[in-house]
Amino acid sequence: MSYLYVNEQGASISVKENRIEVSCNNSLTKSIPIETIESIQIFGNVTLTNRCINVCLTKGIDVIFYSKKGSYYGRLISTNHVNVKRQRIQAKIYDNEKFRVEFSKRIVSAKIRNQITVMRRYGKDNPNTEYAISMMKRMLVGLEKSTTIAEVMGNEGTAAKFYFKILGEIVPEEFKFEKRSKRPPRDEFNAMISFGYSILLNELYGKIEGRGLNPFFGIMHSDREKHPALASDLMEEWRAVIVDSTVLSLVCGREIRVSDFYREDGGVFLTDNGLKIFAKKLEKK
Question: Between the chain's N and C termini, which has fewer beta carbons within 10 Å?
Fold first, then answer.
């Protein structure tokens, strides 16, 4: 199954003879069998025909809408997978503190171990990498002793500081960054990982709904208005090995350039060409 990313402004997505077709300026640019598509990700001014909407709803193809800059707008979903009985059980889990702590420890442990794997792969020549790894391993020890969600998140946050410090040291000079920045991202590196995290979050959102669960009933992350907390929980394990490693591969392999970004309103964002490069690499990962 594949993900279709469409960022050509003015493009139109339609259905013809059991294929999803993307057209721009009255010319067909892509034609894909419907059976092979799991999700369509739309950026900016892109339209869907009524028939395409009906087919996506019927076949359970998730359609996700973003701004041209990559900010999440919403999604087109059917109610075929709603399972009320399962969601009532899911809601009660939040009151089970022991389960929540153990669940969170497993997620954060996997996240830190994956961060260490990425650091070893890309930072083996950096003199500070081994020290950072040793400190992150201490966080793993502290994690096992944690008895509250706050303690779990504290160990996760400390490990993240060491992790991103090393990432800032190992990327090429033109992609150097000082720290994690989000809304808006302040540099090219943060622009890519923020964009990648948004895509990953919304893919997990669709997976959760497909199992009849509610993406907003979190276990580790606290409830927040309009935020799919459970998707955030499940995303933590995969940030480093899917998104961060994709970005590191792009910048260390010189596959993307600073010219593939632009600055606006105090933030840094991918150009249309930069988005194509990033989406293609992420899909391959």
Answer: N
Between the two ends of the chain, the Cα-to-Cα distance in Å is 13
Output the CA–CA distances (angstroms, integers) from residue 120 to 106, 128, 146, 170, in the order listed: 21, 11, 26, 11
pLDDT tens-digit series, residues 20-52: 999 988 788 889 999 999 889 999 899 999 999
With beta carbons less than 8 A apart as the criterion, state whether 29 and 8 touch.
Answer: yes
β-pairing verdict for 27-33 and 19-24: antiparallel
Q: Which of 205, 195, 201 has the alpha carbon at shortest distance from 250?
A: 195
Q: Is this model's pTM higher than 0.70 or not?
A: yes
**Contacts with 227 (C-beta within 8 Å, 6 or more apart), sequence order:** 216, 221
Long-range contacts, stretch 27-36, CB < 8 angstroms, 24+ apart:
30/4, 32/2, 32/4, 34/59, 34/61, 36/1, 36/2
Domain boundaries, position 68: 2-76
* Domain co-membership, 93 together with 230: yes
| Whether residues 72 and 90 fall in one domain | no
Contact 94, 220 (CB under 8 A): no
Q: Residues 32, 18: contact at Cβ < 8 Å?
A: no
Strand-pair category, 267-270 with 261-264: antiparallel
Which of 53, 76, 99 represents a domain boundary (last residue)? 76
With a pLDDT cut of 70, the percent of the chain lying above it is 100
Determine the Cα angle at 205 with ends 202 and 210, to 5°.
135
Longest dimension (CA), the chain: 61
Rounded Cα distance between 189 and 24, Å, is 30
